[in-house]
Each structure stands twice: as C-alpha cells, then as structure tokens.
Write a structure and sequence with these properties.
The complex is a heterodimer of chains A (240) and B (340). With 240 residues, chain A is α+β, with helices and mostly antiparallel strands. Chain A has four helices and nine strands; from the N terminus they run ββββαβαββαββα. With 340 residues, chain B is α+β, with helices and mostly antiparallel strands. The N and C termini of chain B lie far apart (53 Å). Chain B has a single domain (8-329), classed as 2-Layer Sandwich (Ribosomal Protein S5, domain 2). Chain B contains six helices and 16 strands. The longest helix of chain B has 40 residues, at 288-327. Chain B is elongated and about 75 Å long. In chain B, β10 and β11 form a beta hairpin. Chain A binds chain B through residues 24-27, 30, 37, 41, 43, 45, 48-50, 65, 67, 69-71, 103, 105, 107, 109-110, 240, and chain B through 2-4, 6-7, 9-10, 45-47, 50, 57, 59, 61, 63, 65, 86, 88-93, 97, 174, 176, 178, 180-183, 255.
Chain lengths: 240, 340
C-alpha cells in the first residue's frame, strides 16, 4: 500500500542519521545522535565510587538524568529516565565494577518525533565512548500504526500526533560472530527485544507486524552504528 | 561522604604550581597571552530563539520561549522575563543533580542579574521611537509595539510593556540556559548564548478580538509572520582572574586556571563603552588601578565580541530571509532588520 508521508519518505524509510562521538571535553564519554530534526546529546560519567541509596552495592548502578529542552522536569521525564535506566541495565555488564555508579545525562536539543529511541541510541554510543563494559549494543526504533492499519517507521512529531498508536522498540544490535556459522544454536540474539513501550491501542497482529518492520530496520541501524563507531579513533584519555 | 570526596575533581599540587610559575612569564597553559580570549563560535538552531555557543571548550545552549500568562497581581500591566540556568551534571562531574552547589547558584544569579540589567529597549519599527538608554539602568528586551524599561534600583517599570490585555494577558519570556560543557568561564559563554537566543527569537503576533475585545487571538506563524526583536546594543560579560603573585591578571580563565586563581571579577560592558555591571564577590583584594585596567580591557574586548555575534547573526538572518522568500513564492513578506 502506497503511503504519502509529508517529507516524501516511504513507509519503511528512516530519516537521515548522524552520529558523533566525543563531542564534550569534561565528560568521560559523550555522543550526539541526530535523526532528521530530532537531536539528542548524551554524556556519561563513570564509573564513580559508591552506589546510590537503595541500590544493590554488589552490582554497578546506572543513573540516568534526562534534561528536557525547556521547562521543569516532570513525570514524563521521570518515565523516560526509568525506561532508559532499565534498558541500559540490561545491556551493561553490571558485575564488572561493583559498588560504582555510572551516570548518563541526556540533553534534548530538539524534539521532532521518536525522541526516546534517539536518546537510547545516543546513550549507547556515549557508553561506548566512555569505555563502559557492555554485553552488546542496542538500537532503538519507533513504529507507528495508523487508523487504516499501515505501519510507518521513524515518525516526525506531526506524524506521531496523527497516528492511532505507536511503539518504541529496542533491539540488540547484530553481532559479527567470531564463532563459525551454524554453531550458534537457537534463535540469533538480534531477534530478541530489549525494550518495548507502546502508546495507544493496537491489535496483536499490528504489534507483531511492527516488530517485524522494526527488526528489519534495526539491521540497517546496527550497520550504521558499527560504521560510525569504527570510524573515529579514540582521542587521548581524559582524567577528570 | 567518602564517595563524594572520591568523585570530586581536584587539580594536583604540581599542576597548580606549574600554572602559577608559567603565568609569571606571561604564559598560559593553553598557549594564550594573558589578555587573549578563546575562540567563540556561535551557532543557531533551526527554530527561532535557540543558540549554541562554544567558548574554547566551554559549551552553552540557550533556548527562548514565550507564553501568554496572567501578570502578577501587583503588576497587572507588566510582562515577565525569567531566566533559568541549568547547570547540568553533564558539564562537570562535581555538579550533583538536584542539588545545586555554590558555584551553580552563583552562576545562575549572576546571569539572571546580568541579563535583567542589560536588556535593552528595543525600537519599534513602525512607531520609530527611540528610547533613551541610561547605561546604569537595567533595560529590557523590546518587542515591536511593546517595550519596557526595567530599573531595579528605582523600580521604575514602563507600563507600556509586554502587556497584551492589562490584568489578564501578558507575555512571559522564558530563557533556558543549558550548560553542556564546563571548560571554564561559564558566565561569559552563558551570557553570549542568552543574547544570541534573544536576538533570533520571534514571538507570535497577537491581536485583541472577540465580542467585547477581551479575547486575545494569537496568530500562528503560518498566518502572520512572528515579530522579531530589534536590539541596539549588547551587554557582554567579561571575566577576569586574579592570581596572588605580583597581581597577575588574566582574561577568560579556563577551568584549570579557575581552580588556581585567587579571585575573580566579572564586568559587563557594551561596545559603546558603557559599564553595565561589575561583580566581584570576595576573593583576594585587588588594587584600584587594576580594576581600572580591567574595565578598559573589557571595553576593548566587548567591541570585538559584539562584532562576532553580529556577524553570526547576520548569516543566520540571511538564511531565514531566503527561507521565507522562497516560501512566499518570491515575495518578501517579513520585515527586515534595518540595522544589524
């Protein structure tokens, strides 16, 4: 089904992506991720000594601070912080540095739709830049379901508001396995889902269709992520 | 407690003595001369009223938004200008989230006081009225058809202000400054970011309507062009650092120098040579002649920085102009700024 999107994209086309690493000088790791007009800046400090209150001191603790573009931090920002924290907790190796805190600070530079996926992507690149040990990376994508049933990827803010429902999906990125082909049993890891947040009503079939489309797009995102991370050689180390 | 001490960034004793010794021979650790400013880069976002300033390694983002609100009950005819300075933990490992330290609070207050005192009266294009500016009086940003003078000492506020409907609707201008990277001298960078954002900000046009003329209709930007602000002079904050040996003076200290210096002073001047404010909060005592020297230096630097801001602004306004020209099928619908 041909769908007319305002900026001329097809259903499954993502907006132009841009990613840079090491953009800040004081932060241990930093990254900026641009998806079309949605721009997010992420900074990582850590690991710092001491776990936060009520956190398990036998594991590394992750703290997320979300700074909106304008206005006070409210419930929406707290929700984003919680989702981001749980997502990153599942991809970082928490047993390596027990009783430490890694802080991730997200600053929204511009919001034009798909803000949370953009932030998750930026946070992953910033964690890589800081050298925090992780099991694998994550790529996030937003899928919208319209009233007539078609699914579009990576909506702009206007599209998000017009759609019946949308889902933020986070997949593990595809790995280039060092093991020979065929030795991995069961389903490959990138078919798993790390995080899924839905807004609005969608049928079960719609949801599974979103997952399929999202997974296909996440392969492209993984490639882009790998290419951009491999390009920049790390700068000299920063102490403080 | 231990954790927090362990996480605090400290400069080693060797680094400190190295900085001091180098300054005796007028050498700074980043290769600058004592009275040299770092490179300033002013960038603008796609929307009106968003700017990003890089002063060497220091990075600050400024966002301006406007809202129609009810005025304060004791000031029914005045608009509201508020400045929020977010010292984000992104900028410095010692900034704790939710618990602003001394530095963060002071920074917020200096910038707030500086901007509030340095807003200018803006000229109304259509009415072509020029307001007298007194260098010691705090001034306010002017919106076309609305302007206000703001003087904190005398509390003399011009009643023709951001007021749309007295007692019911006024414009509340909110400036958010996000400190992204602390490379030293946050006040200057934040000041430039706030000025740049205010200069590119355009507020929607509104008119009174409805049955009894009590309703305010805000015209969306697609229907009527939003109104830009016109500024006549810019107050620039220049920060000096004092070092105890032989009263050495440096301009625009980096965060390493800030950890070593004995005192600091921020002067806010404009390119015309008017002194808008001086802030020296504690620190070591400095002889009078040094203060005079600082003021002279500041005026010279302010001229250079004002020129840089105007050049960056000129580029972005040309871009906006071209964008609006093509949108309106070749006809120029927006009003241009006569003087930049």
């Amino acid at each position: 089904m041909e769908v007319d999107r305002e900026d001329g994209r097809t259903q499954n086309q993502l907006r132009p992506l841009a990613c840079s690493r090491n953009v800040l000088h004081r932060a241990h790791g930093s990254a900026s991720w641009y998806q079309g007009d949605t721009k997010v800046l992420a900074a990582v400090y850590g690991p710092k000594a001491g776990a936060r209150k009520n956190e398990n001191p036998e594991k590394a603790c992750i703290e997320v601070i979300w700074k909106p573009k304008t206005g006070q931090t409210g419930k929406l920002e707290k929700e984003y912080e919680m989702i981001l924290k749980r997502t990153l907790q599942s991809i970082c190796i928490l047993t390596v540095n027990p009783n430490t805190t890694t802080s991730i600070i997200i600053q929204v530079v511009n919001d034009d739709g798909a803000l949370l996926p953009c932030a998750i992507n930026a946070a992953c690149v910033a964690l890589v830049d800081a050298g925090i040990p992780m099991k694998h990376l994550a790529v996030a994508i937003c899928c919208c379901v319209a009233k007539s049933g078609y699914v579009i990827l990576d909506p702009t803010k206007l599209e998000e508001q017009k759609m019946k429902s949308f889902a933020y999906l986070v997949f593990p990125n595809s790995v280039h396995s060092v093991l020979p082909e065929g030795s991995v049993q069961g389903e490959p890891m990138e078919h798993g889902i790390v995080t899924s947040v839905t807004h609005g009503i969608m049928s079960v079939d719609d949801y599974f269709y979103c997952l399929e489309r999202g997974r296909a797009a996440s392969a492209k995102l993984s490639d882009f992520l790998r290419r951009s991370l491999q390009q920049h050689p790390t700068d000299s180390s920063k102490a403080g | 407690m231990e954790g927090r001490l362990a996480n605090a960034w400290r400069l080693t004793a060797n680094d400190k003595s190295f900085i001091r010794t180098a300054l005796l021979s007028e050498i700074r650790i980043d290769g600058r001369k004592p009275y040299e400013y770092r490179k300033i880069v002013v960038k603008f976002g796609r929307e009106d009223g968003s700017s990003e300033v890089q002063l060497g390694q220091t990075r600050v983002m400024g966002i301006v938004t406007a809202q129609l609100v009810q005025p304060y009950r004791d000031r029914p005819k005045e608009g509201i200008l508020s400045i929020f300075t977010e010292v984000s933990p992104m900028a410095d490992p010692s900034f704790e989230p939710g618990h602003p330290g001394e530095l963060a609070v002071e920074l917020g207050r200096i910038i707030d006081r500086g901007l509030r005192y340095f807003c200018y009266l803006l000229k109304d294009l259509i009415e072509a009225e020029v307001c007298q500016l007194y260098s010691s009086n705090p001034l306010s940003f002017l919106f076309p058809r609305m302007y206000r003078a703001y003087s904190v000492e005398s509390k003399a506020v011009d009643t023709e202000s951001l007021c749309v409907l007295a007692g019911k609707f006024v414009w509340a201008i909110r400036i958010d400054l996000h400190i992204l990277d602390n490379g030293g001298n946050l006040v200057d960078a934040a000041n430039i970011a706030a000025l740049a954002a205010l200069l590119t900000f355009r507020r929607p046009e509104c008119s009174l309507g409805g049955e009894d003329g009590q309703e305010v209709i805000v015209h969306p930007p697609e229907i009527r062009e939003p109104l830009p602000l016109i500024v006549h002079h810019l107050p620039i904050a220049i920060t000096f650092g004092f070092f105890s040996n032989d009263s050495i003076l440096v301009i625009d200290p980096t965060h390493n120098e800030e950890a070593v210096m004995g005192g600091r002073m921020t002067t806010t001047v404009n390119a015309n040579g008017d002194i808008c404010a001086i802030q020296k909060a504690g620190g070591e005592g400095v002889p009078q002649r040094v203060i005079m020297q600082c003021l002279q230096l500041a005026t010279a630097k302010a001229a250079g920085i004002t020129k840089q801001i105007k050049e960056a602004l000129y580029d972005i306004l040309w871009y906006h102009l071209l964008r609006e020209t093509t949108l309106e099928t070749g006809e120029l619908k927006c009003t241009t700024q006569k003087e930049l």
